[in-house]
Amino acid sequence: MITVFDKIQELEEMPSYSKHDQFVQGIINAIDERIITKGEALPSVNTMIKELGFARETVMKGYRELINRGIVESKNRLGFYVAHEDTEQTLKVALLMYLIDSFQEQFYRNFRNELGPNVHIDVFFHHGNITVFETILNMIKGKYGMYVVSPIPHPKTKVLLNMIPRNKFIMFDRYEPLQGEFNYVTQEFEKSSYKAFAELASKIKHFDEMIFFHTPGSLDPVEIIKAFKKFSRDYKVNTRILPEYVPGTAERGKVYFSLDNAEIWKILKDCKALKLKPGKDVGILSHNDEVVKELIGGGITTYSTDFSLMGKKVGQAVLKREKIQEIIPTVLIRRDSL
């Protein structure tokens, strides 16, 4: 009966193969030939050393590469197991996102394209729920070669993210401070929001009042609320923060600002019914740009980071395994609504 050891040892006759190459390719060949299949245990490090005569570091390095490629997984205190039979893949990535919406879709599409067809991606959604976030991280730890995570602003986040080795971790979208060096490609909310409001100040002052719809306890970044309040004070603009837009309450002379697309659509619907022209009778400002906001209602003014660029940057960082610490700029996009 042919074993994993046999498949590794038969590569000794190939002079171009180092012991590391023999180890990795031998296990891959054993999987391809179905000598060992998904879910089955691989020999322990000590057994490999005894049977092959390889150095411990060679065996450990070989297992680490196979784990990074998603072919093998390490189960705490139980050993190494075949995780995937697609041995052509070069990497297995866990992508942990808030939720799927149009701008997160922009990120994912460009991230996926950048990685190419041989990289396996598993996508998880935490919906801003720290319990779900913790459950997912506990479930996936040790099973992936790279973890790409959009974090939650929460006291437990730092502890949970410290479970992930720094060389396998990239933070994206929102930034949360962690101890030590780590990779990130994120956006910034407070300074960029204030800058967008300030650039629109002359337009906003044509109206009687600016209303920001923010539901307490929602996923809205608190930094935007701080920027909105500071703008109100600095520019002496009449403002209010309301928990939600009530359909049918659109008024002439108001600027409406919301991070929720559903609210923007309701406001536009009421404007049409009440014959209020966006940009003239009312102002409308939205966060996070997308194609539909360019087309609907004569165009909705937004300020937004470039999620397509973020997806490309994170994808490149995953493949190159190089240090990256970058904040993607936020840009004001002026259209007819304000």
Automatic annotation (TrEMBL):
Domain (HTH gntR-type): residue spans on this chain: 17-85
Pfam families, per the entry: GntR
Keyword hit for Transcription: yes
Keywords: DNA-binding, Transcription, Transcription regulation
Gene3D superfamilies in alphabetical order: 3.40.50.2300, Winged helix-like DNA-binding domain superfamily/Winged helix DNA-binding domain (1.10.10.10)
Annotated PROSITE patterns: HTH_GNTR (PS50949)
InterPro entries registered for this protein in UniProt: Peripla_BP_I (IPR028082), Tscrpt_reg_HTH_GntR (IPR000524), WH-like_DNA-bd_sf (IPR036388), WH_DNA-bd_sf (IPR036390)
PANTHER family: GNTR-FAMILY TRANSCRIPTIONAL REGULATOR, HTH-TYPE TRANSCRIPTIONAL REPRESSOR YTRA
Protein name in the entry: GntR family transcriptional regulator
Species in which this protein is naturally found: Ilyomonas limi
Taxonomic classification: Bacteria, Pseudomonadati, Bacteroidota, Chitinophagia, Chitinophagales
